[in-house]
């Protein structure tokens, strides 16, 4: 099977976890940001998480370096363009990139300036490379909630023009959903779809809560419904797509190893699973690598892959015309 040539869809990719190391070095020089080294291999090593982290928090430390150069509009536009360009060059047809606007204000950028720059970078890549995409606005669960509505208000102005959804990300504690009920509801009222990181770190109850309390239409990771029957049944009944990220899940110890990842078991049981990168740089991966890993680990046929691809199309936060085009690719 020619994995590179397969049409692919990435619904779960973080902007700040997918920056080219070469770009970090160039932007740091332009912006006067001091780096520990300007050797691209050293910078790459600083950005890539170990194949086996002690936990999710060790993995998340890899975001500090890219964020240091993502505080200016031209940098955000460039990085968004490059993430979409890299994906397009490996035959990713559609991609939803998520990022936290509130993480990019250290030099005084407005929320509109931040979101507008990322959308502009994506639009440029769409024009130059034929890939299609949307942006997801991630709010961090550990940050104060007083500006969440401001982010939603600005994002709402871009609905149908490059912004598609509201997301909650960051470290996952049991029972986090209740606190965010009014914000998820507000996002929906403003026309945003909702996807929530949940069930990544052993808490299947959080998936149940994300769907019932927050109205999640998709779930980021969600793999720990395997140990929570109520959540499993709800995901199955409502056909909520799971944005699984195989390499990342192994790195963060969400699963012990790829061979025990539940993606194929879920697929056989009728759960709409999808394959995604999570963080192209931090996980040292591409969609081609992720697809190849899953196909080879679980001995999937071309029809099996087409099934997963169709799950991605159906779960995508995009219009009917784009979905029809994506279906025609497989």
From TrEMBL:
Q: List the InterPro entries.
A: A_deaminase (IPR028893), A_deaminase_dom (IPR001365), Ado/ade_deaminase (IPR006330), Metal_Hydrolase (IPR032466)
Identify the keywords attached in UniProt to this record, alphabetized. Hydrolase, Metal-binding, Nucleotide metabolism, Zinc
Q: What does this protein do?
A: Catalyzes the hydrolytic deamination of adenosine and 2-deoxyadenosine.
Q: Which sites bind substrate?
A: 14, 16, 170
* Annotated binding of Zn(2+), by residue: 12, 14, 197, 278
The organism's taxonomy opens as: Bacteria, Pseudomonadati, Pseudomonadota, Gammaproteobacteria, Vibrionales
Site feature: Important for catalytic activity: 221
* HAMAP family the record matches: A_deaminase
Q: What class of enzyme is it?
A: hydrolase
Catalytic activity field: 2'-deoxyadenosine + H2O + H(+) = 2'-deoxyinosine + NH4(+); adenosine + H2O + H(+) = inosine + NH4(+)
Q: Which organism is it from?
A: Vibrio qingdaonensis
Name of the molecule in the record: Adenosine deaminase
Single biological process term from Gene Ontology: adenosine catabolic process
Family of this protein: Belongs to the metallo-dependent hydrolases superfamily. Adenosine and AMP deaminases family. Adenosine deaminase subfamily.
Please state the Enzyme Commission number of this protein: 3.5.4.4
- Which positions are catalytic residues? 200 (proton donor)
Adenosine deaminase domain location is: 7-330
Q: May I have one GO cellular component term?
A: cytosol
């Amino acid at each position: 099977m020619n994995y590179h040539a397969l049409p692919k869809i990435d619904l779960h990719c973080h902007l700040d976890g997918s920056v080219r190391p070469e770009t970090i070095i160039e932007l740091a020089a332009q912006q006067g940001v001091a780096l520990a080294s300007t050797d691209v291999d050293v910078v790459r090593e600083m950005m890539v998480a170990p194949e086996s982290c002690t936990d999710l928090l060790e993995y998340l430390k890899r975001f500090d370096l890219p964020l240091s150069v993502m505080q200016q509009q031209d940098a955000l536009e460039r990085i968004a363009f490059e993430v979409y360009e890299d994906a397009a060059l490996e035959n990713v047809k559609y991609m939803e990139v998520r990022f936290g606007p509130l993480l990019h204000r250290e030099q005084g950028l407005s929320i509109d300036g931040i979101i507008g720059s990322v959308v502009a970078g994506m639009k440029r890549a769409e024009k130059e490379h034929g890939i299609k995409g949307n942006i997801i606005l991630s709010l961090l669960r550990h940050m104060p909630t007083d500006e969440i509505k401001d982010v939603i208000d600005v994002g709402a102005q871009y609905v149908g023009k490059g912004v598609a959804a509201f997301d909650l990300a960051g470290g996952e504690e049991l029972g986090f959903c209740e606190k965010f009920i009014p914000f998820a509801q507000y996002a929906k009222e403003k026309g945003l779809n909702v996807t929530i990181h949940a069930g990544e770190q052993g808490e299947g109850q959080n998936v149940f809560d994300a769907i019932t309390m927050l109205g999640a239409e998709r779930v980021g990771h969600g793999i720990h419904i395997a140990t929570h029957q109520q959540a499993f049944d709800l995901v199955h009944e409502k056909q909520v797509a799971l944005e699984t990220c195989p390499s990342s899940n192994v790195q963060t110890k969400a699963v012990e190893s790829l061979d025990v990842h539940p993606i194929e078991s879920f697929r056989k049981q009728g759960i709409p699973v999808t394959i995604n990168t999570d963080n192209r740089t931090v996980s040292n991966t591409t969609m081609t690598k992720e697809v190849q890993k899953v196909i080879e680990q679980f001995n999937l046929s071309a029809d099996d892959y087409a099934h997963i691809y169709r799950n991605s199309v159906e779960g995508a936060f995009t219009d009917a015309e784009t979905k029809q085009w994506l279906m025609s690719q497989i």
